[in-house]
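Thread: Modeling a multi-component assembly for a lab meeting

Hi all, long-time lurker, first post. My supervisor asked me to bring a structural picture of a complex we are working on to next week's group meeting, and I have zero experience with this. I have the sequence lines for every component (1000 residues in total). Could someone generate the structure of the whole assembly? Inputs are pasted exactly as I received them:
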Amino acid sequence: MPIESSDLLQGTLQVLILKALLAESAHGYGIARWIEKTTDDALRVEEGSLYPALRRLEDKRYVSSDWGLSENNRRARYYRLTTAGRAYLRNEAAAWHRFSRAMTRVMRAAPALS
Amino acid sequence: MSASRRYARFWGRDIDGDIDDELRFHLESLISQYECRGATRAAAEQLARERFGDLVAVERALYAHDRAVHRYNTWRDAVQSLAEDLRIILRALRRAPAFSVTTIATLGLGIAATSAVFSVADTVLIRPLPIRAQDRVVALWATAPGAATEVPTILDRYERFRRSTTTLADVAGFAHYGTSLVPLQDRDVTRHAREAVVTGNFFAVLGAIPVRGRLLRREDDVIGAEPVIVISERYWRSEFGGDRTAVGRRVTILNREMTATIVGVAPAGLEYPNGADYWLPIVPTKYPAVDLVGRLRDRTTPNAARAELAVFIRNDARAFPTSLGARSLVASDAVVQPLSEVIIGSARRGLTVLVAAVVGLLLIACVNVSNLMLVRSTARAREMAVRRALGASSRRLALQLTVEVSVLALAGAVLGACVAELLLRILIAVAPAGVPRIDEVALSPAALAVATVATTMALLLSGVLPAVSSASPAIEALRSDSRAGTDSRHARSVRSALVAAQLALALVLLAGAGLLLRSLVHLEDANLGYDPTHLSIVQITAPFHKYGTPQQFNDAFDAAQRQMRSVPGVVAITPVLAWPFTGSNVFAARFDVRDRPALSSADAPYVSWDAVGPEFSKAFDASVVRGRGISAADRLGTPDVAVVTSDLANQYWPGENALGKQLRFAGTTSAGDTAWRTVVGVIKPLNYRSLRTPTPTVLLSYPQAFQQGIFAVRSRGELATLLPDLRRAAAASDHDIVLWRAQTMDDVLAGPLSRPRVEAFVLAVFAALALFLASVGVYGVVAFVVRAQTRELGIRIALGATRADVVRFALANSVRVALVGVALGGVLTLVGTGFLTSELFEVRRGDPAALAGAAAALLLGVAIGGYIPARRAAHIDPVRALASEG
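Re: Modeling a multi-component assembly
Sure thing. I ran the full set together rather than chain by chain. Output:
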C-alpha cells in the first residue's frame, strides 16, 4: 500500500526533494519521477505539493532555480541543490539514520509482533 | 546584481505566466506519460489530475508566495541601489566641491531669506488678532471736509452716538492720541509705559479674552469707580516677568498722581492702540476726545456704519452746537476701516516690499541652481551616455540624478533652516518700532517647506529633465572626443537665458535698494527747518494737588524752566505742547478768522497749534520772515498774540500780509479759550509734528494758553553731559518736580527714521546677495565655456592670439548676456519698483542716479564673475591644452 503524501511529514518531503536533487538539477516533474522510481512508488507524493515545498526550500536558500529547456524542448524551471542545501541534507540524513535505526531496534525488540 | 536583472525587475517579471508554465509543463508531462502507457487522452488527463492533487490550491499558494517574494526583492533592490547611488553621489560631490558648495550655499541663502521674511509676514499680516470675529471690528473716524483730516469725537458726542447707532452692536472709544508715555511706579521701581485711555466697554467690543484676571468693564469708567488698569501681555512678561501676583498689585501712575490696581492681563498680540502697555478707563471729565472702534452688527457693512456716522455727526453738530469743543472739532463726514487694516496698515507696505524682494531673491537662487545643474549635466553628458550604453536604463539614471538633487536639496534645506533662524532673529532685532506683534514671530515650518519645495523643483527641472530627455545627443556625446562634455547650441542658449533672467532680477533688487537708500539719504538730510543737533526734548512732571490754582502750577513750572535755563551750556529753552513727530492731528484745531466768514465755515482747514515761549525762535532757529516772534512781553493780561508759519499764512491769507490779522479757536476748547489773537509774526515752516512734511502751525504764547511740562532745550554740548544738571535744576525750586524723560532730537528722529533705515538695510542686504548670486551665475557659465573650449583656446594661443584676444573670446558671450540682462532688468525695474512708490521720499521711481548705480554695480559683478575664469583662459598653456585629451 502506497503512503500518500499527506501522511508525510513536512520535513520528510523536503528531505526527499533535496535527495532527488543531489545527483543533478531537475524540474518538478523530474523530481516526482525520481521519487516514484527510487521508492518503487511506495511513497506516493501528491505531486502538486512538491511546488510549495520547493518554494520554501528556495526561500531558505537550499535550492536555487533557473529557467531552461526540457528534454522535449519545452520551457521548464530547473531546481539545483545549493551548498547550503547539501549541508542541510547531510545533517538531515544523519538524523534520519539515527531515528530509523532506533525505530528498527524498537520494532525488533522482543516479543516479536507476529 | 547585474544590470540586466535590474532592467528585468524594472519592467516587472511575469509571475503569473511563470507559475502557469511550470505547472502546465508538469501536468502535460504526466498526461503524455499515461498516454504512452496506453491510456486514452481523457483517462490520461483524469489520472494526471489525481496524481497532481489540488491544482487550484497549489496555484494560489504559489501566486501568494511569489508575489510576496517579488515585493520584497523589489524593495531590497531599491534600498541597495539607493545606498549605492548615495555612495557614488557623495563621492562625485566631494570631487566637485565648488559645484556642491555653491549649490548648497545658494539653496541655503534662498531658503533662509525667504522663510525668514515669510515667517514675519505670516505673523504680522496674516495671523488673526486675538479678538472675536475680527472682520466685524472696525475703526471709525469723523473727518473734516476736503482734506479728509481725521477728527476725534468729543466724549459726550461719542456717548450719544453709542446710544443711537443701529449699524454697530457696540462702539468703544480711546483717547485720540493713541498712547502717551508715562512714568508708572510699581513698589519702588518706576518704569516708562505707553498708556492708552479707553472706555470701559473697549475690550467687550473687541471680544478679547484675558490671559490673567479680567479686562476692563463698563462700570470701570464711571466717575467714582475704583481706579483699575489692564496690562498688555508683552508688558506683563517684560516688566513683571510673567509674575502671577502682578494681577492685584497696586501701581502709581506718577503724572496723574493716581494709584490703580492691575486687574488683568490682555491676550498676547493685542496692543491696540499704538502698542499700548496698559489700558486705563477713561475719566469722563478729563479726556474729551476719543477715536472710535466698533463691532458691526450681523449683516451690516462697514459702509453702512460710515454712512450712519457721517449723518450722525452732521445732525449732532446742529443739535448740540454749544457742547464742549463741538465747534472746533467740526466734522462732516466719516471713514471706517477694518481694525486689522488699521493695525497692520503701515507694516503691510514695508513688508510687501520685503516679500517682493525676497521672492526675487528666491527666483534668483532657483535660476542659479538651475544653471549650475545644467552646466553640470552638460559636463556629465558623456558620463551619462557611457552608462546608458553600458545598459543603465533611463529610469535608473533619472533615479540617480533625483537622489543627487535630493541630497543637495536636503543639505540646502538644513543650512537654510539654520540661517533662517539666525536671519529671523536679526530681522526681529532691527525691526522698527510699531511693527505689530513682531515679538510673536517664530520660524514658520510652512514657509520653510514652501521655499524648500520651490528650490527643489528648480533643481529637479534643471538637473534631471535635460539628462533624461536627451536620448540621441547621448550617442553624439560618445562620438565626441571631448571628455569635458559637449555644449549644444540649445543648452548654451538656455543657460544664457537663465543668466540674463538672473541679472535682470538682480538689477531690480539693486535698483530698489538704490532708491530706498537715496530716499533714506534725503530723509536723513531732510530739512526740518531747524538743526536737530544739540536740540533735546525734556519732560517734567509735578504733583498737581500741591498747587491750589492753575496760576500757582504755572508759576512752579516757570520756576523750573528758569532754573533749567540757567544751567551752563543751555542756550535756549521753550515750552512746547507735544513731543516731536506725534502727528499733525494732536493739538490740532479749527480757527475762526476775523472778517473771513468763509474760513470760519465747516470747510476751514484743521491745523496744528502750539504754545511756546520767547526763546522758541532761538531754540528752533526759526527765522522770522515778518514781524516778530513770541516775546516775553506776551503774558497773561497783555493782548493775545499768535505767530504763524509762512505756509499757514499763505493758506489763510494768500497774497496778503498776515500781520495784524486776527484768529481764534473755533468754539470752546478745554481751556475755555475764545479770545481773538492778533498775528504779530510769520516764521518759516517747521517739520515738528511730522518728519516728512512741514506742518502749518499757529504758535501761541504759552502764558496766554497753557503749558504741560514739555520743553525743547538747545544746548552747546551733548545732552548727556547736561542731564544731571538739568535734573537738579528742575527740582531746585520744588523738589517734587521730576525731570523724568529726556531725549536728544537725534534719538527722537531715530523713531520715524527706523523704518526707512531698516527697509533700506534689509533690501540692500538682499540686493547684495542677489548680486553675489548673479556673479556666481556668470562665473559658472564663463568657467564652463573656458573648460569646454580649452583645446580651441590652446590652438588660438598657439596660433598667436594675445591674452587680451583670449579674454575677449571667453567673455564675448557673457557680455552679450549681461547687456540683455540689464535691458530686461531695466524694464522689470520700472514695473517692479511700483511697490516702492509709497516708501520713497523726494526720490522718483525712475531716479537716474539710483538706476545707473544699480546697473553699474551689476556690471561690476558681471565683470568680476566673468573675469576670473577668463583670466584663467588667458593663461592656458597651449602645449598642455593640445596634449590633453580635451
